Amino acid sequence: MRRTPRILTTLTAILFFVPTIGSSTEIKEVKPLNCDGNAGLSCVFPKDCRLGETVMVNCTTRNECPNPVSKNNLEAVCRFCWQLPEADYDCEPPTNCSTSSTKLQLTKCSAHSSILCMGQRKFYKRVPCNWSSGYSWTKTMVLSVVLGGFGADRFYLGLWKSAIGKLFSFGGLGVWTILDVILIAVGYIKPYDGSMYI
């Protein structure tokens, strides 16, 4: 009789502290839909419109956006969103590539809210890899000229192994220091992650 309460207490503790199978405590962030300007409109383009031709379109507010509105006879250029000129869309900078790579990287882009276009407003484009992780070329040059003999420029760029070698050799007795000033000036020495200077 005395063992029963102890077993019940143990079972109760297990039920309360063991998570349910298939349950998840992870909260996923839901990004709000852009309903600003023309981004919140769904427009019907003429089926026979020619690429680049200016046409009149009828638009209604997307189902996901509040405050439904209908706009008739809006002027727009006949083209899909992925055919827009570069000035009419923004792309996320690719960060998983090297700036020395000659291949174009796939990244997500979205049309500006003032633009009317056919198809999905968010699309993928191949862009050159020219991302920056925040290293300043000016700061690198100043460090190279002033404290280059101690490897401060290479420490700043994250080039730890060569920076330690430069420190203990006193900048290669001045030769390494002068060479680094020239190589940084022409952009040959870059940050450790291959990113561009700002």
SSE layout:
Blueprint: H1 3-17, E1 41-44, E2 54-61, E3 70-77, E4 89-91, E5 105-111, E6 122-127, H2 137-147, H3 152-157, H4 160-168, H5 170-173, H6 175-185
Antiparallel strand pairs: 1-2, 2-3, 4-5, 5-6
Helix pairs in contact: 2-6
Main location: membrane
InterPro entries: TM2, TM2D1-3-like
Subcellular location: Membrane
Textual characterization of the structure:
It is a single chain. By secondary structure, this protein is α+β, with helices and mostly antiparallel strands. The chain has two domains: 91 residues, no CATH class; 49 residues, no CATH class. The chain has six helices and six strands; from the N terminus they run αββββββααααα. The strands form two sheets. A three-stranded antiparallel β-sheet has the order 1-2-3, with no helix packed on it. A three-stranded antiparallel β-sheet has the order 4-5-6, with no helix packed on it. The chain is rod-shaped. The chain starts with a helix and ends in a 13-residue tail after the last helix. About 11% of the residues have low confidence.
